[in-house]
Amino acid sequence: CEFCTNDIILKNKGKPYQWEYHNPVYDRDYLIVDRIITWPDGRDVRFEVAFDITEQKAVAEELREREELYKALFEQLSDALFLESLDGKILAVNESTCRLLGYSRDELTQLTVGDLVPEGGKKFLPELIDEETMAGKALETVNRRKDGTLVPVELRGRIIEIHGAKRMLVSLRDISARVRVRRVEEILQRITEAANAAENLDSLFSKIREILSVMMDTTNFRIALYDEKENTIFMPYMVDEKDTYHSFVAANSSTAYVIKSGRPLLITTRNRAQLTKKLGLEPVGAVAKAWLGVPLRVEDRVVGAVVVQSYTDPDAYGDDDIGILETVSDQIAMAIVRERAREALRESEARYRSIFSATTDAILVFDQDGNIVEANPAAYRMYGYAEGELIGLSADKIVHPDYYHGFKNFKNGINAGVFVSDSVNLRKDGTPFPVEVHGVGFIFQGEPHLLSITRDISARIAAEKELEKSQRKIELLHDVAHVLESLEDEEEVYTHTVHAAEEILGFPLCTLDIREGDALVTKATSKGLPAGASQSVALSEESLATKTYRTGKTYVINKIEDDTAARPTRTDFRSGISVPIGKFGVFQVAAREENAFSPEDVRLLELLIGHTTQAIGRIRLQRELREQAIRDPLTGVYNRRYFNEVVERELVRAKRYDHPIGFLMIDVDGFKAINDRFGHQTGDKILRAVADLLVAQVRETDLVVRYGGDEFLVMLIETNGQTEAITKRIQDAVAARNKTDELIPVTLSIGAAHWSPGDDLPIEQVLARADQAMYREKRTDG
Asked: Which domain covers residue 154, as residue numbers?
C-alpha cells in the first residue's frame, strides 16, 4: 500500500523505488517509480511516475513461456543438442548428448567440439554447417565417446544470436544403424560387382572374404557345400589359421547342423557347452572361441553353409552379424548360380562364337522336338526378342502358319544333312517377313540337332519389285546364290563369284582377295586381267583393299587418281568399287572410265558379294561343325564315335584290296595317380602330350582315337599287319619325352591285334584282343 511504501522511500531518500501495481478497473499493469526529493521550500516531497507496462509484461510472459518450452524441448529431444561458441567451445548440452557420448554435462562443457572428433574425422566450419542445413542437407562425421568408441553421427546446425552474441546450435543424431545398413548395401553392391568381374569362383570367394572383412572378422572364412549322396561336406573355398582339411563326413558337426536344419548358428565360449549338449554337436578340427555359420540356399534348397570363426575373440560375432552373413550368403548363392551359368555360357560361346561371327544372318539351333536351344545376337535382332527369350521357343512361334506343318520337315532336314528352303517367319510382334533358311543336321551330346542359318530377304524382295530394269540381273544373281549355296568348296565359290561379276553384272575387271594370316591374298581374277594382277597385301599396309576390310564398308572411287589409298595395279584404271566380303576378304571392281559405276551397280555387286559371304560362311561353318563332331575336344584326335563310323568303311576297303589292318590299344600307366598328385589340369596336359606324340609317330593315313579316359586306339590302315615297329617307335618317343620332362615321367602299356580279310572276325573281338594284350603288358611291367 501507499503508506507502506512511504517508510521504504523515506529510508532510501534520494534513491528511486520501483514497484508494480495492477489496476483491476482497467485491467492494466503499471510500473510505479517513487523518489523523495527536497522541494525548494525545504519540504520532503514524494515524486511519483507511473508507466503502463501491460503489453511489456505480456511480451515478457510470452518470452518466459517460450524459454521454458525451449528448455523442455532442449532437454527432451532424442537428438543430441550442443550450444557452442563459433570457435568450438561447448557451452551447453542436453541429456541426449550425455547419453550419446557418455560424458556428464560438466565434462562436456570443459571440452571443445574438436575434442570429440577423432583423428582423421571430418570437421566442419560453422558457416558450412549453417549453409548446408539451410539447403536441407545434413552432414555426416564420426564422434568419439568417452570410452573411446566411435559413433557415426548426422549433423545439422544453425548460427543463432543469443544476448547479442553469435552462437552455434548443433543437433547430432546417431546413425550407426543407418551406416551399418549402408555398409551392408555397399558390401552387397561390391559383391555383385565382384561377381560380374570375377574370372572364376575361387577369385570371387576371395574377393567376397575381403569385402566382408569391413563388417566382421573374416580371418577364418569358408564356404562349405554338401554332397547329399555321399553325406560329405567339402569346401570349395577355405582360409583358416589352423585347419587344413577340405572335406569331412557331415555327421554332427556344427556346419552339418546349419546345413541340415537350415538355421543359422552362433557358438561362443559362453554357450558352447549348452549348445553342444542340446544339439549333440561334435567338433571337427580346431575349436574356435567364436563360430558363426549360416545356411547357403540355392532356389530354396540348402546346399551348404557360409562360416566365419575366430580363434582369439569370443565376442567377434553377434546377433547383428547373423543377418549380415545371411544376406551375404544369399549373394554368394546367387553368385554361384550365376557363375555356373556363366561358365556354361562361356563354354557354349567358345564353341559357337567363331561360327556365329562368320555371318550376320540369324543362326538358330533346334532340338529334335523343334525347340530353340541356341540363338545368336543377329537372331534376336531379326525376330525382335530380348536376349534369352528365344531359348525354349517352339519353331511354330517364329514360322508363319502357312509355312509350318509340324516339325516333321525339320526332322527330315536333320536326317538329310544339308537343306535350303524359302519360308515366311514371324517377328515377336507378329510381323511376317520372308526368309531363306539354310539348314544342316548334326549330333550334339548324342542327340540330333538342326542348325539353321536364316536370312531376312525382305530388303532384297523389295528391291526386286522396285527395280524392274534390274529384274533379269537380280534373277540371275538369285540363281548364282543358289549355286553358291550348293557349292561345298571355297575355291569354287571364288571362281563362281568372279564369273558372275563378269557375265551378269558386266564387270570385266575384278579381283577377289581372301584373308590368309595377316595379308589379303588374291584368289580369283576376271578374264580381263592378266595373271600378274594377283597380289598379296599385308593388312598393316595402307591400301583401298585393307581399308575396306578393316572398316567393313563399301567404297566407290569415281576418280582413282584423287584417292591416295586406291593404289591401282594398272595405270589405265580410272574408277572402281571395293566391297568387303564380310570378315573373309575384299572384292574389287575397276573400270577404264571415270564415274563408271552407278548406285545400282554398287547395290547389285553388294548383293552378289552378300551371297558369296553367306556361301563362304556356310562352308566354313559346316567344316567347323564337322570337325567339332568328330574330334575329341581335349586332345584334338578323333573321337570314338568317328572311329565307329570309319572302321566299317575301312573293313570293306581292306577286304576289297586284301589289306590287313593293325590295331594298337594304348593306356597311360598310373594316370589316376598323376591326377591325384598333380591335379586334373596336369592330367589333361599329359593326355594332350600323349595324343600329340601318337600322331607324330604314325602316318597321316592312320587313325589316332581317344577311346575313353586315358585310353587311346591307333588304327594302322593298309599295313602288312606288323605292329612291332610302330610300337617300338612310340615307346622310344615316350622315353625321349621322359628325358626332357623328368618331373612327370609317363609310360604306356600297348596291346596289339590284327585283322585280316581272311579272318572274318568281328571288329569287337579284334579290339578285345588288343585290349587284353595291353593289360597283359601292364601286368608284366608291374
From this structure: 77-174
